[in-house]
Specification:
The complex is a heterodimer of chains A (227) and B (285). Helices cover 61% and strands 0% of the residues of chain A. Chain A has 227 residues and is mainly α. The longest helix of chain B is centred in the middle third of the chain and has 29 residues. The chains are: A mainly alpha (227), B mainly alpha (285). The interface between A and B is medium-sized, with 32 and 26 residues.
Amino acid sequence: MSTVTQSRPLTDRFTPLRPVVPVVASAGAATLLLGAVTLAERGGEVPLFITHLVVLLVAAGPAYLLDDRSADVTAVVPRPLLRRRSVIVGKGMLVAAAGWGVVVLLLRWRSPSAPLDALTWETAALTWVGLAAAAVVSGHGVSEPGNQVASGLGLLVVGVLVGQRLLPFPVLVTTGDGPARIGWWVTATCSAVAIFVFASRQRGRRSDRGGGGRRGGGAAASRTYRL
Amino acid sequence: MTTLAPPRSVGPAATPGQSVTALALTEARRFARHPLFLCSLAVVLVAQGVGIARQQVIDVGVEATVLPAFFIGVFGFVVAHRLTTSLRRTGDLADTAPVGAQRRTVALCLACLVPMTLGILVILSMALFGAVWPPTMPDRQVAWFGYESNLDVWAVLIGDVVLACLGGPLLGVAVARWAPFRGSALLGMVLLMTGPVLAQAVPSPWYAAAPWVIFNDERVVGGKYQASWILDAVSPAWWCGYAACLCALAVVAALMRESAHRRQLSLAGGVIAAAAVGFLLLAVA
């Protein structure tokens, strides 16, 4: 008697990690950019403007976590939306945190005057603002909100960096001795988390998507589960 | 009694020029109505309004070009990228398109004249308000008309505003044609912003090889501007030629995504690249 062992295809093993690929890519791009600038500066400190761009790259990646290409063709979802998103977001945040850790190490090595605490809070807040915005956009029927949100977040951050002198108060730390607006960023983070949770409530989506689906899903579609 | 209606005459098929013109007008309307473009327009108008209210539109000379260059040029990059990739998003719905991808790319490039027109209006208003309320500084030296040569000031305004407003969107089309993956807009935008900042670390005058250059320098005491002037290291007029060549190279790069006319485009790209090098050498000479 022989035993037949059927192994899972390699692509299936990596399927649960697919949503975090953009986070890995953006964190990797941030690290590469910081490394390249560090080399280009030839011993000098990395300009804070560039550091903010690195922060932006790390923070914008998680906005892609809520992209769900199969949303329009899936009739039944096995778990509540918030629970499903929590798993994906948890994995993505771990990757983003690891990426930020590498960035912090690089900054501590070559740019000791960079306000790392303030930048860390800024990164956390921007990440959650991106996630909250993605959840809100996704709630309006956009199945892949990542591109819109990441571009919008980028323009917002760089816009504030460029036009900050027109604002009545500094939002981003632009000089090493500038005040760290940690209170501001903690408030922004808490608000963004609340918006993310609120926007990820089911609000009758399960019943909407059940019963054969809205868009001709039928039995075949009802067997397709979203991640 | 029946009335027979004569058959509707079928007009001659549209020529390539007519189809490109019609598409370009459509894309230009889409560009002008895009929320991000309207947002950049609003920021520029608010900045001008604040300047008019304070009777000081030009505060530190040509450094006032930073705001329109970013808010029209970089926002235009994202708008153009989104308009270009929107053609891919509808690919599943429309298997066949009435015109080829290359002609649609030409139309998108022509639509980039919309932000350029806004850039022209911005520099004209800057020149007008600068004449009404001339900028002044304690050391009586401002990088503006009356203190610097008119040619240099106009060249800085054209190079840093008008060509930035054209080049950003054209680069957006090229990036979207060659790298339409998720996140390419964000990555392109970050690299577009990083280039000019990193170029400041390059020894003078070779920082002029960047796609956007800060031509002025200023003296600041206690956080207050005392004087500003246009640097002699780079000729702004010749640099405009270099920037225009970069814009043309972006168009060629966008068009080369398709296999049609690739040989002619390669030839044109080579000539333009050689011209760009020539202009850069003249600018730094």
